[in-house]
Amino acid sequence: MQVWLGFSQVVLWGLAATLILTLILRGSQAAGLTRMDLPLILGLILTPDRERAKTLGVLVHIINGWLIAFLYAAYFRLLGQPSWESGALLGLLHGLVVLMVVLPVLPGIHPRMASDATGPEPTRNLQPPGFLGLNYGRQTAIVTLLAHVIYGLLLGLTLGWQP
């Protein structure tokens, strides 16, 4: 097996890229570019306690991103070699799937999220993201795509790096 697809490299760089992705998303929320708090949304799937949900959500997001890094590594292996270009392109596709598939279906599976059709209820106090996450602000889609492109770009660069 080639060095750039070694398990330890995917573990290391997958974690690093995921942390950077998470920081970009959290930073964009703190800067007022989006109202979407993905770790809170993910954490509230597991617990109604909003404070615990933030911590659990960050952990879920990091584990998901870490596991997705292995899919990126498999993609790079199919291509023959990772590159920043192929990583950025896959990151763009990843971001589009999040915005166009994952976020719109969340109300159907999330126990505490209202839907576009029914609105808030006492037990469903999260606003639905809507298509492209636009219910959380017009810049949500741009920030989310940019963060995922950077994630893919980083994996394309680092998984191809050989000491």
From TrEMBL:
Keywords assigned by UniProt? Answer: Membrane, Transmembrane, Transmembrane helix
Name the lineage: Bacteria, Pseudomonadati, Thermomicrobiota, Thermomicrobia, Thermomicrobia incertae sedis
Q: Which residues cross the membrane?
A: 54-75, 87-106, 141-161
Task: Please report the name of this protein according to its UniProt entry.
Answer: DUF2938 family protein
